[in-house]
Amino acid sequence: MEQILGQDWTITPAGGSTGEAYYAQRDGKRLFLKRNSSPFLAVLSAEGIVPKLVWTKRMENGDVITAQQWLEGRELSPEEIQHPRVAQLLSKIHHSSELLDLLMRIGKKPLDPENLLQDLKNHEQDSSFIDTQIEIHQALRYLENQLKYVENHKKVVCHCDMNHNNWLLTNSDQLYLIDWDNAMVADPAMDLGMILHWYIPRDEWNEWLETYGVELDEDLLSRMHWYIIAQTISFIQWHKYRKEEKQAARWLNDLKRLMIQLGIINI
């Protein structure tokens, strides 16, 4: 990073799972730097979904460094995800033809739920997961039985990580959705299921979705159930691959809770 900005900048790691993000500061000027960030960051910036993109530079080794405004603010609390502004911003993202067009042009293929299911099965057959819990096998059987209900639905740009710490509220009251490294072209039920199951009380789903712009019906409900189960399995597998057993166990407990709620397994 120093070879791009110069020695007079103070650069510190910004944390995160990839270790590719940094804060840079000099004479009161502050930037958020990231190595090999999402290639459609410019469109996200132009649409006001992420903080303003200041510049992009390609290094000799092929890495691309992006610099964004470093804005003072905070992540949303879990309770604040219930706010209508979150539903409105997510609706704007899901209905953006510009984002969808660019993501397709840079080579993102629409997510096929059958392929997603096969990937989850392949991970379970890997020797690393030989001690897998029975609940995962029950969940995979549920996904297979329900597969026909999630195929052939309209695809949009999905963020795919609706964790409350990816929602940034600045001191000037601007709301952003950050960290787009896992974005996909997928069924909007993928994002909606994560938000509703994690953060919105069940009796408020109808109102929250009305603000987003859709009606809760059996079709949407079944698709959200399918994707939240699939994503929870994926999180378990990811943490087990990284030998993060405590995190994997926490997600396994979430999977059990979800399957009990959905009547897939009994208490």
UniProtKB/TrEMBL annotation:
GO terms for molecular function: ATP binding; protein kinase activity. Keywords: Transferase. Transmembrane segments: none annotated. Gene3D superfamilies: 3.90.1200.10. The keyword Transferase applies. SUPFAM superfamilies: Protein kinase-like (PK-like) (SSF56112). InterPro entries: Aminoglycoside_PTrfase, CcrZ_PhaseVar_Mediator, Kinase-like_dom_sf, Prot_kinase_dom. It comes from the Bacteria. Pfam families: APH. Residues 7-267 form the Protein kinase domain. PANTHER family: CELL CYCLE REGULATOR CCRZ, PHOSPHOTRANSFERASE YTMP-RELATED. This is Phosphotransferase. It comes from Pontibacillus yanchengensis Y32.
